[in-house]
Amino acid sequence: MAAEALIPTTPEEAAGLFGDGGDVVVFGGGTILLPEIAAGRFRPERTLLLHRSGLDTLDASGDVVRIGAMTTIAALVEGTDDLLTRFAEHVGDGEVRRTATLGGNLCASPGIGAQRGDLGAPLIALGARVRSAGKGGERTEPVEDFLAGDRRARLVLEIEYDRPAGKYGFELMRRRHAHSFAVANVAAAEANGELRIGISGVGRFAVRARSVEQSRNADDVLKDVEPVSDALASAEYRSKMLPVLVRRALDQLESA
Fold this sequence. Notes:
CATH topology of the domain at 167-255: Enolase-like, domain 1
CATH architecture of the domain at 167-255: 2-Layer Sandwich
Oligomer: single chain
Distance between the termini: 59 Å
Strand content: 25-35%
Radius of gyration: 18 Å
Number of strands: 12
Strand order of the largest sheet: 4-5-8-6-7
Shape: globular
Largest sheet: 5 strands, antiparallel
């Protein structure tokens, strides 16, 4: 059977072609899929190519920042100036950032040698919401709920968050090689008396550290996330370092 390429030209067409996501592979920037396809390890039969879908929009001019799923990481660095920017500028390297997309970063499957989805942490801290399509139609939900669900069954259309009006702190522990890989990421933001903390690079997907938000005790972060082992760091090492990073991020908030 010959492979089929689907090339939508509008967000609505992309959502329609995606359907319930059961028999289609979504191709965004290609930084994860292309190496697998080139090596012959993966041969998709139906591929949804989003490069002409009109999902590469970025509007940071109003009270709500809206970012299309196909917006590249490099465009985030250039087009925003907040907590998300601080993380985006450290993803991969220049080549990866010019190709990889926000939607692809959110939906990336867990890596074998390193964890993915760095941007989940700042988006959680910012209170971001994900608009997606799939079975049952479109819906908008908090990013932490989207990440905890079946991301393969949803097509990300847009991410939005209220323009930051408070203060933030962050800590990134990374291993430098040809690219920049996360060992652990912590993002904390406080606005109108509400504290939000996002953790990424530690487990299979980014999570919200609700226990720390309630207690402001950095050691409680291990109640919210279960560190994993990979080629970069062991679960034991992550378990020891993560509370340290959380404490540093909280200290930044106190001193801001």
